[in-house]
Amino acid sequence: MMADLFDHFDEPPRREDIAPGAALLRGFARAEERELLAAIDAVVARAPFRHMMTPGGHTMSVAMTSCGTAGWVTDRRGYRYSPDDPESARPWPEMPAVLRHLAQRAAAAAGFTNFDPDACLINRYVPGAKMALHQDKDERDFDAPIVSVSLGLPAVFQFGGMARGDKPRRYELRHGDVFVWGGPSRLVYHGVLTLKDGEHPLLGRQRINLTFRKAL
Q: Which pLDDT score, from 0 to 100, does residue 175 have?
């Protein structure tokens, strides 16, 4: 397992076109891994990870926090963006420049210029955590793409269609991979299968996912 991870580090970044408006940028974020992890640590120090509750009363297996002008929250009142962290009643931490610039470069590499994210969701997966198929539709408009960065343990990403019942395709996302979708693919259903156990040389037994959006 460890040898496989290090083998992937030697692969040059490459683009895989998945669907109209959707591209997988293999290894795109790997060169900046330490700067990204330091920025994430700074955000988490101010807004710690937490397991939120869905409107239906279920506790999410994925731990989450946010940075930027708005953060995504869920509770009994529903899904929404909020300018303040509900646990501290203070604004979410500012989005670190290294995160913003990575998202903008990845969006441009996938064909979306002038992307200016105002929200970055930071998700922490441990073995056994998953994300059910869903659409990202809490944003005010859908003109901007979603930029999703994978760090740590590999995960199987499901990328479906416009209906929940459409059979999704599956892609293994490894450390440093960036998945971008927008345009005709902006509202596809997507999710993450249950994370398998493993040990990443930098992050240990976890996967960190950064999801950038234009929320407001």
A: 98
Please give the domain boundaries of the chain with CATH numbers for all domains.
2-213 (2.60.120.590)
Q: E strands, 109-167, where?
A: 119-125, 131-134, 146-152, 155-159
Whether residue 33 contacts residue 43, with contact meaning beta carbons closer than 8 Å, is answered with no
What is the rounded distance in angstroms from the CA atom of residue 130 to the CA atom of residue 127?
9
pLDDT surpasses 60 at 176: yes
Length of the chain: 216
Q: What is the 3-state secondary structure (H, E, C) of 26-40?
A: ECCCHHHHHHHHHHH
Contact 70, 92 (CB under 8 A): yes
Burial 173-204 (b: 16+ CB within 10 A, else e): bbbbbbbbbbeebbebbbebeebeebebeebe
CA dist 144 and 211 (Å) reads 13
Buried b (16+ CB within 10 A) or exposed e, 107-136: bebbebeebebbbbbbbbbbeebbbebeeb
Write the pLDDT tens digit of every residue in 61-114: 999 999 999 999 999 999 999 999 999 999 999 999 999 999 999 999 999 999
What is residue 90's predicted lDDT score, i.e. its pLDDT?
A: 97
